[in-house]
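One chain is below:
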Amino acid sequence: MKKSKIYYDANFAIKQYRGMGKYINNFVSVIKSETKEIPIGLLVGGEKSSDESIAFGLLNYVLWEQISLPRFLKKKSGIVLFPYNTAPLFLNITSRHVLILHDLIYMHGFETNSLKQKIGAYYRRFIVPKIIHKFENIITVSEYSKTEIISRFNIPASRITVIYNSVVLDQEHTENLDVDSRDNYIFHIGGEPAYKNSKSVISAFARLDIKLQEKYKLKIVGIRNEKSRKEYHSFINKLGLENKVTLLEYQTDAEITCLYQKASVFVFPSLYEGFGIPIIESFKYGCPLVCSNSSCFPEVAGDGAIFFDPQDINSIATAIELAVSDKNKAEQIVSNGYLQLQRFSQESFRERVVNWYNFNYNKIQ
């Protein structure tokens, strides 16, 4: 059978990518291996074309998406994936076009010091309400996100498919129930936006029992903006924690893996996410998880976490203290996390993608 082409925006799936980039890379990898489609990545002008990608048009991403991309697609047939919550305003959307809508964080107006993130949020807040009703085929990453999309935009449930994020269970995935062998630090992946709630982790650390403060340190990844780093250092100093809290620079995937594997506990305090990839990453590496009870997190974490109220500093501190002080409880949630992880294995992801493709192909070809 002759293979056809499936096009997708690959701009955030190259170089230093996480989150949405990993998702679309995994998605097209399944499409390539399991269907008759040949995935072709589309890139802004200035990037390098290859056998599997085409670079064309304007250099600025927003202008490329709104001007260059629709011009290119007018000449093409086949399925087109828009994987980053947005799409061209003036493209004639057809049943061949698929919107991957990870979350609606940008609709909530959370504050951030990052100009890039502010622009991205304003852009999506403007674009999404104008294009979402045009799509007959929407993919999202959790039942929570599906429910929110239906509620906010009155989209029929039949148009939305949930395909969870996934992790590869490879040789690095080994049960790690011996919490005594871990290093004495608490780990958190945060960020500048207010919904990441990173300052609350620092405040909670300051409220730990003094013996625990003396024993443990707090390591934070994700605070990259220079203005935010200065603000965080000032906040840390005011709490007298300058020798206890470290804001790490950019970490590679291998370095992130090592941090999970050695941490005594991973803290995930977000107020809102579409899925929460760090949850399943902590499961994979057997790191005891204490987690916000809001948003989609109970759906994703199941019985594999100690939950807390992310708006209550004392609740966060109590959960951390339980995880580092009660060995049996820590080992129980690690064991539960391994079981929960099976829902988000690469095999489960592959099955969902294939089922989605088989169910929809006759409609979107």
